[in-house]
Amino acid sequence: MKREHLIKPVLDHHYPTIQYGKGVYLYDDQGKAYLDASSGAVTAGIGHGVQEIIDAMLEQAGKVSFVYRSQFTSEPAERLAKKLSDLAPGGDYWSFFVNSGSEATETAMKIAIQHWQEKGRLGKNKVLSRRMSYHGITMGALSMSGHVLRRRRFIPLLEDFPVVAPPYCYRCPLNKTYPACGLACADDLETAIKRIGAEHIAAFIAEPVIGAAGGAVVPPEGYFKRIKEICNRHEILFIADEVMTGIARTGAMFAMQHSGVEPDLMALGKGMSAGYTPMAAALVKDHVMEPILKGSKSIMSGHTYSANPQSAAVSLAVLDYMEKHQLVEAAKVKGSYLLARLERLAEQFEPIGDVRGAGLLLAVEFVSDRISKLPFPAGLGLTSRIIDKAFHKGLLVYPAAGGVDGAGDAVIVAPPLTITEAEIDLLVQLLEETVREVLQEISGFDRG
Ligand code: PMP
């Protein structure tokens, strides 16, 4: 292998060099165009190369890019926190700014634990999550995640936080069917709480729509209302991980708005700055902050770049752009157009077992048999084959660990919210060619 210096995800893989991006396209140094139907990692929500954001970056850089949060505050950070609170379900949120989704979920976890400590409830320090979940790559965030592959290497170093059943109706982990199930997956949280003891539990964390660990898995109607009711009854804080779903992606500014639930804490990232700069946040309801304000008056966490004015100014510009171009509405309208097109694809290809999602966070799950929903053998690497073939054709889609515990195949389709219908048509055409060719390649595989 050639000696290099940049550590890339797969060390012996060739990654094209991108020279610039415009709208939904990225262009490499060979002149090849890529239709970014994954918004990178479901991040570039307003597309690439937007002039208004570049202008806002330059304007802030001309004033000051960095101040240290222990010494100063800044106007962009103050304005951004107020704006997020105004937009969030029910308002009344404080913001703690960080730099990645992992830091956001981990900060939310720490604040939840501190909340109980300030109230003298020192034993409440476990965080429950769901078996199909991804809340980040750092040790604390991984401890709260059910993503088998990303955890495996570090299991001995992780906190042994319990997980409960996910709301994965396509393959119900409890072998039930909605609505006859009576939301048994939500009640599984209560069973776990009773087993562990609420006096040991600080919080429950969940993605409103499961992303990388399942592929745009939308919970059944009433699920989060039940979850919140269970959390309230047992004095457990509810953290919504909106890192992937937040900031208009699902056709609402926050995906929790679809279920009418106001989380005690939220984690935001990705779409918050739409990829123009690292930016993320833990949002904390006023009642969660209250004992901290009365007590130690300081959150025992933070990073050097937390609340830096440069990233805050970019994030404000992204939110302004979204409002100006009505991108919440666009996610809804373009999302249902794309969903209908993907559903038509499923009529063409027997191995497409499920098409699902919300707004422009959609996914296609593949099965070797539609009736039994049996996944393809892992050794076939179907998801990778589809991602690679699409990439070759100039289409970017995002891998998801479909199936229970990642034992299945799914790809997420989540283009920038600015995508046009004509661009969606091209996206679907490229995906159709990809699926056809990959299925031909594997047509003789051994189902045993
Ligand atoms: N939570 C969710 C739901 C995510 O999708 C991700 C990233 N895929 C994270 C947390 C972690 O975010 P980051 O990669 O920015 O640390």
From TrEMBL:
Keywords: Aminotransferase, Pyridoxal phosphate, Transferase
Gene3D superfamilies xrefs: Aspartate Aminotransferase, domain 1 (3.90.1150.10), Type I PLP-dependent aspartate aminotransferase-like (Major domain) (3.40.640.10)
Record flagged with keyword Transferase: yes
A molecular function GO annotation: transaminase activity
Keyword Transferase set for record: yes
UniProt record similarity statement: Belongs to the class-III pyridoxal-phosphate-dependent aminotransferase family.
PANTHER family associated with the record: AMINOTRANSFERASE, AMINOTRANSFERASE CLASS-III
NCBIfam families: PRK06917.1
The protein, known as: Aspartate aminotransferase family protein
Organism: Paenibacillus solisilvae
